[in-house]
Amino acid sequence: MPCTSCGPRSPRFGVDYNSRIVADYKPQAIEKKWQDRWRETRAFEVTEDPAKPKFYCLEMFAYPSGHAHVGHVRNYMIGDVVARMKRMRGYNVLHPFGWDAFGLPAENAAIKHGTHPETWTLENIAHMKGQLQRIGISYAWEREIATCLPEYYKWNQWVFLKMLERDLAYKRRSSVNWCPSCHTVLANEQVINGACWRCGSSVTPRELEQWFFRITRYADELLAAADASLQGWPEKVLTMQRNWIGRSEGARVKFDDIDVFTTRIDTIFGATFVLLAPEHAKVQAWSKEDPARFVDALKKFQGQDRTARMTGEVEKEGFDTGRTVVNPFTGQPVPVWVANFVLVEYGTGAVMGVPAHDQRDFEFARKYGLPVTVVVRPVDGASLSGDALEEATDSDGLLMNSGPYDGLPSSRAREQLTEVARSRGVGEGTVQYRLKDWGISRQRYWGTPIPVMYCDRCGMVPERYENLPVLLPKIGEFSGRGDSPLGQIPAFVNTTCPTCGGPARRETDTMDTFVDSSWYFLRFCDPTNTDLPFDPAKVAYWGPVDFYSGGVEHAILHLIYSRFFTRVCRDLGMTTIDEPFARLLTQGMVLKDGQVMSKSKGNVVDPDDMIQKFGADALRLYVMFVAPPEKEIEWTDAGLEGSWRFLARVWRLVDQLSGTIGGDDVPAPAGLALDDAERALRRKAHETIRRVTLDLDPRVHLNTAVSALMELVNELYAFTSRASGGRAGTDADAEVNAGTIERPATVAVLKEAVEALVLMVSPFAPHMAEELWEMLGHPGGIVAAGWPSFDPDVAKASEIIVPVQVNGKLRARLTASADAAEDQLREMAMADPHVMKHLEGRTIRKVVVAGVAGNRLVSIVVS
Ligand code: ANZ
Ligand code: ZN
Known about the structure:
Blueprint: H1 27-40, E1 54-59, H2 70-88, E2 92-94, E3 98-99, H3 104-113, H4 117-135, E4 145-146, H5 150-165, E5 169-179, E6 184-186, E7 191-192, E8 195-196, E9 204-213, H6 219-228, H7 235-245, E10 247-255, E11 258-262, E12 273-276, H8 281-289, H9 291-303, H10 306-311, E13 318-326, E14 333-339, E15 350-353, H11 359-368, E16 376-377, E17 398-399, H12 410-423, E18 427-433, E19 438-439, E20 441-442, E21 452-455, E22 459-462, H13 490-493, E23 494-496, E24 503-506, E25 510-511, H14 520-523, H15 536-542, E26 547-551, H16 557-571, E27 584-587, E28 590-592, E29 595-596, H17 607-614, H18 616-625, E30 633-634, H19 637-661, H20 676-699, H21 702-723, H22 744-761, H23 766-775, H24 782-785, H25 792-795, E31 799-806, E32 809-817, H26 822-831, H27 833-839, E33 844-852, E34 855-862
Parallel strand pairs: 1-2, 1-26, 3-4, 12-14, 26-27, 28-30, 31-34
Antiparallel strand pairs: 5-6, 5-9, 7-8, 9-19, 10-11, 10-18, 12-15, 13-14, 16-17, 20-25, 21-22, 21-24, 23-24, 28-29, 31-32, 33-34
Helix pairs in contact: 1-23, 3-4, 6-7, 8-9, 17-18, 18-19, 19-21, 19-22, 20-21, 20-22, 21-22, 22-23
The structure holds ligand ANZ and zinc ion.
């Protein structure tokens, strides 16, 4: 069946769809023309203009992997619709783009194919930039940045030194993945199932001195703001941020000289053992004294995947250390075990085992025959004995088997026991965060050199600000073997100490590439500054980003690091904003054949192929129309063809009407006497403007905005064919005989509706819209024309359709006046014969009228 929105199917899809239906819509030529024009007129370049409201629209910048597929570019299209619409609404819009250009894939390509990371990266950038330009994304390209260039990474080094001065950057020993046969440190991504990606040897942990950023100093603030300031973020992302920060209130308690962290000190009378992480300092010390008992088991645990140990994907295992400590509340000795599910990084790396009330401890106790003592019972019931328990009961209740504290509710007990522990000097209340300091050291080449050196006399010495950037030297060969690549270049490593003039060695680690992406949005405000990372005045004008969109895979790290860096810049006095991104949209993936598009699956769709066939405008419109921006889409070529057909219909309509409505002497319809059909078209036009305006701003419901435009086009065709003597609205593609339209009021409402249509289509299909706008006799361009406005009185629909549900099932549709009162709708619903059928013999429990004017629903609940 032909789709009523996009017209009859072209019978010759894939052959020559340009020739038959519309002779004139040639997207490729139009698109080239406008892209050239935009570049020549610097159409999207902006400067600070205090007279205009600003709007900073940003999509997460790209990793230059090679070729962007439609799954990648969807995000840029979403941002572009928003940016173009905001420009039309009078905002000074900053819409920049750049490249997250450092990182491991470039280095891996160098190892595999011998291309230098720099060559590989710059070539990829050039290609992908061309792709985005051919899609017509309205970027201020003069602000383009690539993080691998010294003029950018110099400022990573600058910020690093500032953080060092403030004790926000520090060094400590920490564990990395080590491949014993390649003799190299592996990034987490290079470890596949515990083995080296190149040689397959199993990876072992190794302790190295590494650099950290003290993000934990901001933990409280980051958490509080997630609750208070980020209303423009999706709830699921806020939840991920909260969980990542992971605030737990609890207590530290001493079992002799072992400090445990617990959130349930109320259960301490049931602590029948203590568990230590395999990496715990005590365990390491004991292992030296007694290798036979420890070494093999420890090796096994430390080889297990950390996250799997944490989530419990790995079987819970442990062994007895042969030591005991005293439970400070029961006074009884309890055994000390090592357990693989206790993590050294969290809390104190030691846990009091309460098997009756913690499921992991319970499984552990049953497996190894450790005693289980129930110490909390439900408020309204008795409790099982430890031996009869089938699983732990972790809810609060009333204390039992807890000496003087029996009968206390858990929450009171936590307060009292914490206080008792404190007064006896065996513990204290504490707040624990899951968030850890950010390890930024990478033993890699393709990243920002960390600007410090080591001098025998002076120790660690920061590079001087005036010597920045510490340039990344050019390396000739990448073997992927051996220690840090920079360590193998004597000319880089050997330097002079700026303090004493003696010989010094440079740090050979580079920074995590998340450092680059943690502040690039600030750099875009002032991308060529050679004195500072950015001029505070410029960030004061543009900041914060008003609309940020990108993949949900960045919901945690990138966003939290950016929030951290913004605060660091604030505390350096460089900006007054706390939060970098006011509004966040996480776009859905593009699937093909039910799978996420990816090169390795061989199911990618290259935008350039689609542009060649259908043009960039159809591609953009299709991707925006097929689903809400946050939802997944399943790619189909047929869907894209449908969008092309819709644009061709708009083209033909405007093309044929332009002679009639294009003149300057057409009056506005407001003062004219309109007949019913004219009034209906005018209402439809204003109602569509209202819908599309709200859908775009603030809702960003791009797909429903496109549907509204399709409806308007249908209406326009029906109206025009009637007005020009055709059969009334029967054939959606009837010839429009525009020459016969003469009545001034008809011309006036047509002009108003068609011009509004062209303007509203423009964020989606900007090239075609600009061309049509010119065709309609407006040489000034779409942005100058501005966004169309609507008259709410005209837009008010006179009649609306109101669905009626009975117990959630649709039973009828009422046709009612748009301003019908609730009582009236309720009465009409109950009197409808289809509804009455479902009420017979039932009791009516509730009748609810939901929704707002223009969009309502009656819901009846019966039993
Ligand atoms: C005894 C206890 C009894 C616990 C009970 C829980 C329930 P959150 O809320 O995530 O902070 N724990 C502490 N440090 C740990 C570590 N390094 N590795 C693994 N587990 C650790 O969790 C805090 C609880 O997780 C702590 O409270 C501790 O177990 C465990 F009925 O102590 B609890
Ligand atoms: Zn020195």
